[in-house]
Amino acid sequence: MFLLSLIAMPWLATSADAQESASDPRCATVRVAFPAEFSRWSQRSPAKAGTSTRTAPVVVIGRGVDLQLAPADQVTPAAQPGKPAEGETNAGLALFQVSRGGTYRVALGEAAWIDVIRAGRAMPATGHGHGPICTGIRKIVDFRLTPGRYVLQLTGTPATTVPMLIARGTA
Questions:
Q1: Gap between the Cα atoms of 38 and 153, Å rounded
Q2: How many angstroms from the chain centroid is the CA of residue 99?
Q3: What is the spatial distance between Cα 95 and Cα 99, in angstroms, rounded to a whole number?
Q4: Which of 17, 34, 88, 120 is a good FRET partner for 1, with 20 to 30 A between their CA atoms?
Q5: Does the predicted TM-score (pTM) go above 0.70?
Q6: In which element (H, E) is residue 95 found?
Q7: Quick one: what percent of the chain has pLDDT higher than 90?
Q8: What span, in angstroms and rounded, lies between the C-alpha atoms of 107 and 43?
């Protein structure tokens, strides 16, 4: 059984890569199915992440951005990251406003640790998973949020730019 696991491991890595990369040639023949809340994923605009909450841009729920990050040692976190970064990584902050309570989903196109922070406290995630195959959405994390202003904190990624979109979850 152990030998079978070792043989299957390279296939699993390739399969996960195909799920995460819309540029994978195998995706050329796949009809991409975006969840309704991520229908604007492909219409992102560039934005520079803040290195502190004072310099953080405001992102609009439902509109995607390609968030340009900074070296982690140049970023003042809004709260202690939920997972310590290993090695040299990048990080960044963005602000967003919730007008109606509910579940909000943060989708990323790169691997990064996601913290959603309000009043200096990280909100607990209520769910997480991968994006649909060939969409370019690598990771989705859900948070139950009440109205107010929040900080999105991305840490622990080697990526210098992270595609992202915050969406209100559908029922």
A1: 20
A2: 21
A3: 13
A4: 17
A5: yes
A6: strand 90-98
A7: 66
A8: 14
